[in-house]
Amino acid sequence: MHQERNPFIDGKLYGDTAAWITVIGMSIALLGIVFSAFLGGGVFYSKRLMANLLSGKEVHIIWESSSVFGKSPPKYWFFKEHLCPDVISMIGIAIACYGSIFGLLAMLISMFKRKEVLFYKKGLYTVLTMLITGIVVLAALGVIALKR
Amino acid sequence: MNHFLFSLIVFLICTAIGCVAIIAGTGGGVLFTTLFLGFTSIHPDIIRATGLLAALSGTRMGARRFLRKGIANIRLVILLGFGYSLFAVLGAIVGLEITQKFGSIGVAFIKAALGFVVIIVGVIYLFARGANYPVVEKVDWFTEKLGLSVPYYEESRKIVVNYKLTKSYIGLILICVVGFISGTFGLGAGWAITPLLNLVMMAPLKVAVASSAVMISIGDTAAVFPYLMSNSIIPLFAVPAVLGLMVGAEIGSRLAVRIRARFIRYVLIVIMLGTGLELIYKGFHLMGIV
User: Fold this and answer.
1) Mean pLDDT of B74-87
2) pLDDT for the residue numbered A147
3) Is the pLDDT of residue A49 over 90?
């Protein structure tokens, strides 16, 4: 029974970590939206953005004509810009996206703490968890991405 | 229209979508992507990115509850989650490639193809009847070797349920297809994963629902990053949409116990079939076929 309880703890760690980081991230993103209602977004020209959004313009056109950049910015642009409501929203969204990565890392650490879980079925589930984490991290780093 | 009003309207529409979806027994992501692609002009890349963000945020909340209670089978999640994550991210890249390389023809293709997928989803909802505790007569050699089963405590019956799983090799193949569809069209995939786990691998219905939520919360995280990298997530649209779907799901789960879920489910099926046909028509119209 002891061996059966351990996956339960690993899963719980993943669930708690991923969910709380998502809540924190989305709360920050909401804060950005509320600030932008009073202070203006800082990055987007909101009227032009809404018009372009609702008329079905492509993503790069939206960025070209509705943002201060005048072009589609590089990946993770919001970590390099001065803090403003739109930047706060994007940072929040990014944090929410990272939730599962931190959850998976917490699960891996927990797995490595207990031999009976680590080596269950010759470590098959530990290796698979490492591979899943690898895929998500590579996607987050933009290694697995659309090449332009 | 000022942008606060725009955010409020998106929030309210998505709250309604999230509420109806959860009562009907599906995720808000599927209905959101389908309805917004079918009935608005917003570019598919933005809708799909937001749909995936909604799917992963919503399922993480559900996953937490299921994992705390030990209902989700974490070994099953890890085994199938590998294929799901890999193919979801590949699907996202292919989906973006189609719209960005082929322009309006790519958009038309995505709409028409999603129309067919949505009709299939509607048909699955119409005919698939989950079995609470499927009986496994024979466990195949491969599944036996994987040692997948993890017993769980069934609160309603106050017993520990020991269950067997089977045909994991079929599950491994099918989950790759499901992951690819999820990433390409920006859909959550509970509509496919739950029947796959319950009807093919014979997991108890509760385990199938719970494990499906955890798997989507991981796999769709991988799929959302190519959209994030291509700047397809626009906060003014994405934040109220995701929050609306999450609030709607919370309201819906409270309302579900008081209203006739079966009726709502049939309404949802009609909406999905109707929207599916609308998407096919729009796609073919953009291609100049009709």
Assistant:
1) 95
2) 65
3) yes
State whether B217 and A58 contact (CB < 8 Å): no
- Secondary structure (H, E, C), B44-94: HHHHHHHHHHHHHHHHHHHHHHHHHCCCCCHHHHHHHHHHHHHHHHHHHHH
Of B7, B151, B243, the CB nearest to A26: B243
For residue B276, what are the domain limits? 3-287
Nearest to B78 among A16, A33, A132 (CB): A132
Residues of chain B neighbouring A22 (CB-CB closer than 8 A): 56-57, 60-61
What is the average per-residue pLDDT within B59-88? 92
Please state the domain count of chain B.
Answer: 1
Q: Is A42 on the interface with B (CB under 8 A)?
A: no
Contact B217 A120 (CB under 8 A): no
Q: Which residue of B has its CA nearest to A8?
A: B70
Query: How far is the C-alpha of B48 from the C-alpha of B44, rounded, in Å?
Result: 6
Nearest 5°: CA angle at B66, between B63 and B71? 135
Of B74, B222, B240, the CB nearest to A136: B222
Residue B262: is its pLDDT beyond 80?
no
Question: Nearest CA to CA, how far is B148 from chain A (Å)?
Answer: 10
Residue carrying structure tokens 């944090």: A95
CB of B206 within 8 A of CB of B17? no
- The mean pLDDT value of chain B amounts to 90
Which H/E stretch holds residue B161?
A: strand B159-161
The proportion of chain B whose per-residue pLDDT surpasses 70, expressed as a percent, equals 99
First to last CA, chain B: 34
Mean pLDDT for B40-48 is: 95
Distance from CA of B117 to the nearest CA of A (A): 22
Cα dihedral sign, A19-B35-B224-B79? positive
**Taking 80 as the threshold, does the pLDDT of residue A8 lie above it?**
no
Calculate how close chain A gets to B126, using CA atoms only, in Å.
31
pLDDT at B2 over 80: no
Burial class (CB in 10 A: 0-12, 13-18, 19+), B195: buried
Amino acid at position A106, single letter: A
In degrees, rounded to 5, the angle at the alpha carbon of residue A18 between the alpha carbons of residues A101 and B29 is: 100
Cβ-defined contact of B221 to A29 (cutoff 8 Å): no
Residue A1 confidence (pLDDT) above 50: no
Lowest mean pLDDT among A86-95, B123-132, B154-163: B123-132
Say whether residue A63 is in contact with chain B using an 8 A CB cutoff. yes
Asked if A97 and B56 come within 8 Å (Cβ–Cβ), the reply is: yes
